[in-house]
Design a protein that fits this description.
Number of strands: 16
CATH class of the largest domain: Alpha Beta
Oligomer: single chain
Strand content: 15-25%
Bound molecules: histidyl-adenosine monophosphate
CATH superfamily of the largest domain: Bira Bifunctional Protein, Domain 2
Number of domains: 2
Amino acid sequence: MSKTLQAIRGMNDILPEQTPLWRYFEDSVARLLDGYGYRQIRMPIVEFTELFKRSIGEVTDIVEKEMYTFEDRNGDSLTLRPEGTAACVRAVLEHGLAGGGQTQKLWYIGPMFRHERPQKGRYRQFHQIGVEVFNIDGPDIDAELIVLTWRLWGLLGIRDALSLELNSLGTSAARAVYRDALVEYLTARADQLDEDSRRRLSSNPLRVLDSKVPETQALLADAPKLADYLDEESRSHFEGLKARLDAAGIPYVLNPKLVRGLDYYSKTVFEWVTDQLGAQGTVCAGGRYDGLVEQMGGKPTPGVGFAMGIERLVLLLETLDKVPAQIARQVDVYLCAFGEPAELAALTLAERLRDQLPGLRLQVNAGGGSFKSQLKKADKSGALYALVLGEDELARQVVGCKPLRDQGDQQSIAWEALAERLALCLEQA
Ligand code: HAM
């Protein structure tokens, strides 16, 4: 017997029981973004490897260790996208969407791929909803991005479980000065650094700040602070952002160690974190990347954005018991028919109901079956009502309407009155 095949580790099926919650979440975000004037863009899942190396940075965990890279039949090196910003910038440049300084407010949704060690909330295929804005350089738009996520947490009922961490990485010029000071400080103490940090010292010293090793963190306590090196422009940008968050009543925590794992950031960086999901507590993260478009071959174009992890937010909704009751029901009405003549009538009756009540979730029994077995299927579908159409009902041009979730009696309803009666019943349900 051949071995049954399984999905790849860290890549999950999202089963029918889970998809209603996913759709609820995705629809909520899409509606919210529509309301703020963001437009959807869809990029390919595969891009040239070079794109990610140049944007995310050669010396990052993602590019060094986590990409799914392969050669295609032409010998080109391609990579399954580990995130969406790089491809979005590529698309914006390729189609001139930000040309002439025009503003773009974009969003995307889809799977991303990183070869990380799978655990709760961390997968090798995961899904993000991302937002990117081009050609607005002030802190007002950074604030809008945070305000809209804050509104989303409110709509979903998870605001209390999330906190906002905020930092400014400054302009690249300010960061270069800071980098030199940090390298000088750490080089003098290199013998006390862990191996990873020592390697990063020469390749990407800011990432040392991110180290999880306690001895390294202790060493950093007296190290130069990035905040002291911020140039005037970055400082006033950051103050402008904080003033807007204060005005909007959004609490935040300043976290000078927040440097993010991708190299393209400048000025604002932020993360929404929760303590409800264990180690993988960041549900939404992003920041400003004013140098990225130019670095990718375009004209200087300010950019800012974020991405949220759908798996983590769905998990959070479940953990906090914030799954709305109405999304559990996927069928409103189940139509049972007995015998060929009734089945034929049921077909036209069902189509008429669909015309009359758009949005009605109506399941018509298929595959025949006895009265008992069809009603069992009706019950299992989760429907609120079973409609019964047998020989007798057919002759009288009525259906039996049987409530499945409460004690009411079965009633006989004339076909002409059915749509109106069902609408009324479902409205009250
Ligand atoms: P990121 O921090 O790498 O940023 O990912 C954003 C979010 O995606 C994370 O906060 C997390 O919720 C989710 N995520 C990341 N990796 C995994 C994983 N292995 N399993 C499950 N969820 C995951 C970016 O990707 C940037 N492109 C965000 C951005 C957009 N910055 C500016 N614009």
